[in-house]
Write a sequence for this structure.
């Protein structure tokens, strides 16, 4: 089972003068809510995680939802044998998460781990569902911390674009 989580950094707090209601997409994706993230396979007891403290957590969640859609573009869907690839790069480093979908399964590798480390593997449906749940839960947490964020039009658009999947 896939578990996605985060921890906000105390070393890189948001600027105290931030107007969350008017923060633009660039600020939301790259300048605010820094911390660390992880993807874990709870059955295999393995995870891919960052320990840098500066990863833009909302951008990670947003990008993960985008990637789940990007690797689902083959008209054959879960029957597609041709690999569909995507990557998530971390802006402040050269490290990336690599995603490859074949048939209904997505393998996820972290470039910062040894090549001998096998990728995490999840069904595409699980990745899509968990990525959207993570995004929605993260937005709920962030709006609990910063009430004005719930009035930000970019957040409304993001919530509508990636609703939870039942």
């Amino acid at each position: 089972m896939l578990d996605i989580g985060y921890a906000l950094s105390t070393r890189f707090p948001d600027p105290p003068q931030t107007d969350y209601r008017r923060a633009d997409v660039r600020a939301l994706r790259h300048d605010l809510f820094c911390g660390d993230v992880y993807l874990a396979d709870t059955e295999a007891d393995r995870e891919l995680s960052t320990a840098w403290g500066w990863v833009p957590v909302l951008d990670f969640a947003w990008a993960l939802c985008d990637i789940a859609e990007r690797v689902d573009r083959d008209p054959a869907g879960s029957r597609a044998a041709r690999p569909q690839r995507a990557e998530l790069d971390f802006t402040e480093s050269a490290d990336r998460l690599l995603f490859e979908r074949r048939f209904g399964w997505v393998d996820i590798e972290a470039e910062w781990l040894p090549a001998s480390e096998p990728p995490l593997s999840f069904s595409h449906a699980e990745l899509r569902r968990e990525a959207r749940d993570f995004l929605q839960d993260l937005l709920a947490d962030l709006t609990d911390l910063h009430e004005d964020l719930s009035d930000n039009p970019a957040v409304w658009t993001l919530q509508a674009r990636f609703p939870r999947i039942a």
